[in-house]
Amino acid sequence: xxxxxxxxxxxxxxxxxxxxxxxxxxxxxxxxxxxxxxxxxxxxxxxxxxxxxxxxxxxxxxxxxxxxxxxxxxxxxxxxxxxxxxxxxxxxxxxxxxxxxxxxxxxxxxxxxxxxxxxxxxxxxxxxxxxxxxxxxxxxxxxxxxxxxxxxxxxxxxxxxxxxxxxxxxxxxxxxxxxxxxxxxxxxxxxxxxxxxxxxxxxxxxxxxxxxxxxxxxxxxxxxxxxxxxxxxxxxxxxxxxxxxxxxxxxxxxxxxxxxxxxxxxxxxxxxxxxxxxxxxxxxxxxxxxxxxxxxxxxxxxxxxxxxxxxxxxxxxxxxxxxxxxxxxxxxxxxxxxxxxxxxxxxxxxxxxxxxxxxxxxxxxxxxxxxxxxxxxxxxxxxxxxxxxxxxxxxxxxxxxxxxxxxxxxxxxxxxxxxxxxxxxxxxxxxxxxxxxxxx
Length: 440
Prior knowledge:
By secondary structure, this protein is an alpha/beta fold. The protein is built from 10 helices and 21 strands. Helix content is 24%, strand content 26%. A 7-stranded mixed β-sheet has the order 13-12-11-14-19-16-20. Strands 2, 3, 4, 5, 8 and 10 form a 6-stranded mixed β-sheet that branches. A 4-stranded mixed β-sheet has the order 15-21-17-18. A hairpin with a 5-residue loop joins strand 6 and strand 7 (89-91).
């Protein structure tokens, strides 16, 4: 947790925040105003709310002494923040009135900056609190934008609070350090160029995505938003590194197993293999688990965690992948991509069938995007179980049971992949038209 020195806290605030926190979240408590002290006259008892040291009592000209109060005020209680086009911090009172602003855990577009909690891994990976962006005034915007634009979330936990003392009255109750307008303007400029220009190298969303997510937003017009949409969003370049995450339940007939792995070896890409039995093949991760849907998701996640390439192809143990499959480069880092040029072939009869379909075995995407999805997918399935309404394929439907809001696009390799159907496929095989829900 980063926190300003002049703050006070609810009892057990740390445990309450951690209890609901997820690895890709930045969390903050409700922010109250800290009533730290009053000035009290030693002669007449007159009280004055905290502020600069008074020379004498306003009523009787007696001496004023500081008396500690140290409690969070009941009002205001801030739970939503934004930034305008400068960008400058804004309180987002209107969001609190919306449906999505109600509940124990609510999202916020930005942060006030005096307090936030993230995992240590996320703090370093996203280079939060980057001092090269300036020394004052935009830290909350920087942290929030880095979390949201990299695929994470910024969440306010209404189950606990902290109280922040605002030193805004000048004198000995103002900022205890020199602050120039140039410093503030420099920080705004750096943050604006980085995020409004879609120039941050770890983002998977363009900046206009964040504005639209919380629209309407104070300090923004439709023209302001439209102007952001024409700013180019970074793409994955052809120089990006590629890798394969291969997963197997080790139940394949040897001739299928060997043929598939020989084809993958010829791709010439780094491979992480994740198996339910130990394997002496590339970088192997052995998970001693029972076969099943959750296990498959855990295998994919385990491989993604150790893979260190920009782009990852998910490869199943019973697909013959043509080399043209691995020539693809995802144009965008915020979309899942499916190769739909795949034929189903019966391993015994040779019966072959083609139909349009998106399959996890044909999925390729930015590694960070896949990591976020499968971390969340595993967490959900561990908690409530797997439902077919959730689906297997990231980004392919808009049902409320979906794991996240990322979308998918299709592409086709020059030559098809072969999906070998055998006695131990995890998903059933359909060979007749009447077995399909979608008759088209």
